[in-house]
Design a protein that fits this description.
It contains 13 helices and 12 strands. It is α/β, with parallel strands linked by helices. The protein has a 10-stranded mixed beta sheet with strand order 2-1-3-12-11-4-5-10-8-9, sandwiched between helices. The protein has a two-stranded antiparallel ribbon with strand order 6-7. Strand 1, helix 1 and strand 2 form a beta-alpha-beta unit. The longest helix has 19 residues. It starts with a strand and ends with a helix.
Length: about 375
Amino acid sequence: MSTHNLAVIGGDGIGPEVTASALAAMNVAADRFGFELLTTDFDLGSEAYLRTGEALPAAVAGQLRDYDAILLGAVGDPRVDPGVLERGLIVALRTLFHQSVNIRPVRLYPGVISPVTEVSSDNCDLVILRENTEGIYTGGGVMVKDGTPDAIAIQHSITTVPATSEIVEFGFRMASARRKRLTLCHKKNVLLYTGRLWQEIVDQIAERYPDVEHDYVHADAMCQHLILDPGRFDVVVTPNLFGDIISDLGAVVQGGLGVAASANFNVSGSAPSMYEPVHGSAPDIAGTGRANPTAAVLSAALCLAGLGEREAALTLEAAAASVLAEGGDKAGQQVNTADVSARIATRVAEIDVPTTSGSLMQTLASLAPQHASAGSRLSRSG
């Protein structure tokens, strides 16, 4: 029996609530498909920061490295200044553990209503891959003449061949296993140097994937095409900032942040990947039982896929989708966290394993690092 050790960061607001729902569904899948999940809770987030003054203590970071994957609920609290936890914890973990590929599925599940009238479950199933460790988010900067009328803010951006090549290669591998189409999203007409580097790398790597068609779209044009014709896209590769923006637009297209999952993926398996819903901590509804756990469950499905548990990942996704089709997240209907969680967990035990080829869960499981299905780092290091 395979054993997977998971580090769990419930975090703030609704984070612990939706994470509990995700773990409940994962444990049912583990029982059904014959593997074991061992979990360890880590006290990270706003409360820990306010108590200690540290977003990610070095000792805790060292402990997290030994786990097979990290489940993150959400972080954020009005008492903590913006950017402290986003950069000090989330961006820090992505960079420290070389989680170079942010995976954002944009799939409209049957029964979920998109605010975009022409979008349906038949034409909305794409994956946005966002470079996660470079770009303008991690390049640093400087403020000159701070606090004066002549203040100048300089924000640096970093783009390297190794990091860009890694995500583009991963994108072509994923596209080859899906609908064989890859799109580069950038602003190379204005960002001449970084845009040229990205395009050159895409063109070079494309030579090794003759079965995959590739094209290009400006980031601003992508905001239009994603709404008017999401079926145009299969796998999209893009830098950090653009990926952050268009993936949230994609979340709206697919029905809202309540169904938006993500993975911060370490392609080589040299450190754990991290999986999180993207809806944030929503402190205004924390403790009310109205948090939608679906995005956390779908992130957990990505986690199982990243661990190589293909059938479990497919089943978890199918269970969540079937509950959505019955009214788990329709406009105007108040979500009950416990009810949705229980329905998904029950469905995991009963639903048939999907056999459709080319799905994201199936593809990600096939691309999972070899260590993931072989057991835990903790077991090997012990």
